[in-house]
Amino acid sequence: MSSYAFWNNKGGVGKSFLTFVTACEYASKNPETNVFVIDLCPQANVSETLLGGQESGGLALRKILSGNERLSAGGYIESRLNSPFVQTSDPQKYAIQVSEWNDRIPDNLFLVCGDNLVEILSEAVRQTSQLAVPLNSWKKVMYWIKDLKDSLRESKENESIFFIDCNPSFAIYTQLAVTAADYLVIPFTADESSRRGMENIIALLYGQGDNYIASFARLSFYKQAKEHGIDLPKLHTFISNRVLTFDGAQSKAFKAANASIKETVKTLSKKHKTIFASPQVDSNDRFVEIPDYHSASIVSALTGTPMHRLKAGPKNINGERIQINPGPLKGYKAALTNLVDRF
């Protein structure tokens, strides 16, 4: 099965939480499929949420990272630095079964934990990719996470699907993530900075867009990927996150910003169909809307509870009473189902 990287060059668009709820809902709906989350964001937000939420998830992650072996994305990358051009022995050990740490998560969901070590090692990874020998050192390093993904898939009898959480920056660990993905999922909020972030993605990965910006992008990752014959992920889904409403209708400000982003994607799809998944799909059909954050999302994130396990009613979170109303919860679950059904 396929692999999907959640990325936007702009931070704060909710990609880590969307990775969490998407992976959990997919695992719940497809119990015979192995669902892997690879957390390549040094902040490890999706890992903390999966492992139990704000408090218990953070403690669990600290315990995992402080073990005799660092079973995380950072630990795996460290092992590859020790032997850059040969796959590490037993790479499957870096994926943990999340339900052993958080019993609210489906048993078929596995996690390669995020790790701040990824940031610390990034310069060493970059230097390794520039070694003169072997001649294809850059490509071999770019495939480190793809190697891990392939090993994890081969270790399971049933089909597997991968969701990769990325850091907003286009650091080398983000490059490893997108190189490992078949498809790109771009969450955004309806504002001009999100639109610029999406334009950066298109320039950085595909060397397309504004002539001035694209001319620089073609000198770096895009050029290297093209020269080394690396297949880059296709643009799959654009998630309009935190949709703002007023009296049950979308706000005018949201509609205007959203329309601008849709027009950007429409223009791109007309000029460069080959960078999209299923090029025949209308550009408007590539968009999914997820409602604005409300109590259900807050409780889900703080407690590591997937949406399918969340019920309406009062909740006590950190000494505060939070009310989850059935209407917003039902609306969020319906929107999430629409998203998950695309994978």
Structural notes for this entry:
The chain has 343 residues and is α/β, with parallel strands linked by helices. It has one domain (3-340): P-loop containing nucleotide triphosphate hydrolases (Rossmann fold, 3-Layer(aba) Sandwich), CATH 3.40.50.300. The protein has helices at 15-29, 45-50, 56-65, 73-82, 117-120, 122-129, 137-142, 144-154, 172-180, 192-206, 211-217, 221-227, 252-271, 295-303, 326-340; strands spanning 3-6, 34-40, 96-97, 109-112, 160-166, 183-188, 234-243, 245-246, 249-250, 287-291, 313-317, 320-324. Strands 3-4-2-5-1-6-7-10 form an eight-stranded mixed β-sheet, with helices on both faces. A two-stranded antiparallel ribbon has the order 8-9. A two-stranded antiparallel sheet has the order 11-12. Strand 11 (313-317) and strand 12 form a beta hairpin. The radius of gyration is 20 Å and the shape is globular.
Question: What are the salient characteristics of this protein?
Answer:
343 residues, alpha/beta, Rossmann fold, eight-stranded mixed beta sheet, two-stranded antiparallel ribbon, 15 helices, 44% helix
- The ordered H/E elements are EHEHHHEEHHHHEHEHHHEEEHEHEEH
Task: State mean pLDDT (0 to 100 scale).
Answer: 90
Structural class: alpha/beta
3D shape: globular
The poorly predicted ranges are none
Largest sheet: 8 strands, mixed
Number of E-state strands: 12
CATH superfamily: P-loop containing nucleotide triphosphate hydrolases
- Our estimate of the beta-strand percent is 15-25%
The count of helical stretches stands at: 15
Rounded to an integer in angstroms, the radius of gyration calculated over CA atoms is: 20 Å
Major sheet strand order: 3-4-2-5-1-6-7-10
Domain module tally: 1
Gap between N and C termini = 10 Å
Query: What is the multimeric organization of the chains shown?
Result: single chain
CATH topology value: Rossmann fold
Helix content: 40-55%
